[in-house]
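Students often ask why we bother predicting the structure of a whole assembly rather than each chain alone. The short answer is interfaces. A chain on its own may look different once its partners are present, and contacts between molecules only exist in the joint model. In this exercise we take two input lines together and write out one structure for the complete complex. Read the inputs first and try to guess which parts will touch.
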Amino acid sequence: MSLYPAFARPRDLGQAAEIMGSLSTGAMIIAGGQEVMPSVNYGALMPEVYIDVGQIAALKGISEENGAIQIGSFTVHRDVQQSDVIQNNLPLLSYAAAQIGGGMQVHNRGTIGGNIVSMHPLYDILPSLLALGADVDILKDGDEQRMALADLMKDASHGLGSESLLVRVLLKPMTPDAGWAYEKLKITAGGYGSANAAAIVTLDSDKITSLRIIVGAVSALPVDISDALSDCRGQAWSEHLAGEIEAKASAAIKDPLSDHQGDGDWRRAMAGVMARRAIEAAVKRAG
Amino acid sequence: MEDMLEDTVLVNLRINGRLHELETPAHKSLLDLLREDLNLTGTHMGCMTGHCGACTVSIDGRVAKSCITLAATLGRAKITTIEGLAQDDGTLSALQQAFWDSAGFQCGYCAPGMLLCTAELLETNPDPSDADIDTALAGNLCRCTGYQSIRRAVKAAINTTKEGAPQAAE
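Now the answer. The structure tokens for the assembled complex follow.
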């Protein structure tokens, strides 16, 4: 074993599966490097082999066919922001991709796949993808498996595992009448959020008929609080409803993060504030 | 499977217009390649975690943080560093001159990132608002906290580039 890491460049998914199957847990998939490299430079990760997936065409591009939208896992945030397909069909995702921290440089190289598999609690894409009900295709043991992103996200401590590769994200277009919003509480322009929330609502005249609301950056994983706020259905927006949303959203955060972004009690309170703001903005957009 | 593993990787990078064929170790960042192998020390090492933006370069026309870019992944990329903005005789580009005239840097450590991000901003959006400027520079930290003068410098650059001044070298 060399003191320094080795490098592998699979040209297609078959080669990628072959390489991943033959290597130990010391192998690290690298795409844009925006998650892996800070951890390597910081000394938290010491890969024995980098598997560069940048040559694999199947991981690239955004397409729409028969009402199904596919985003290759190697697609960078800038392309998600600017894609006509995403802007027209998934404006929430396009907007959320523009709120990712780290500035234009990270938007240009960071990939949607890397953002998902890092399962970082403070990252910006997951709440919107979960609100949109995204599915993912995973290459594992040489086969592609489709699963709901929400099922993949149940365990933040294990992630995908070194034998799996996220191939693509699958989404259905938002309905044209849906109102949406992504709210992020942050201290600096390019910084992490201390709390965030993605909301999608539909209205019948002014009454809420459906609500998807995910709160992020306050727990180890984003929390789907749609059920906790199911009482919103049938109600029109009011100051009273705003207060109820804020209180219930805060109460739904059972195990808040407490870190340099803020302590647990404050994070829980801000989860409520973000949920209220996101739903209010989504209702306004739908109305 | 061992034959698919390489200890070093051949990359063909066009850096500031010049072609460099380099055999780079798998673990080397673009920042280290530029500074150590090519002596292009205008690209600054700051935080090494992708927060500060002092190491910013342009890769295939898009800015990136070179400290968190693995050189071996770059293949045949075109790269512009801060050295590529000025002309060969040292004459500053219109963008650099605008920063110089407007005191757009104090210690200068963040300048490569501020300048390259501004260059990309003005290429895609010739008439940016204050909010556009702030968004474009969000990935760059100035520890002298000279953000107001940097924003003034970007506005001065908008005026000079509107007059058709040359942009970054290929």
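Check your guess against this: The longest strand of chain A covers residues 193-204.
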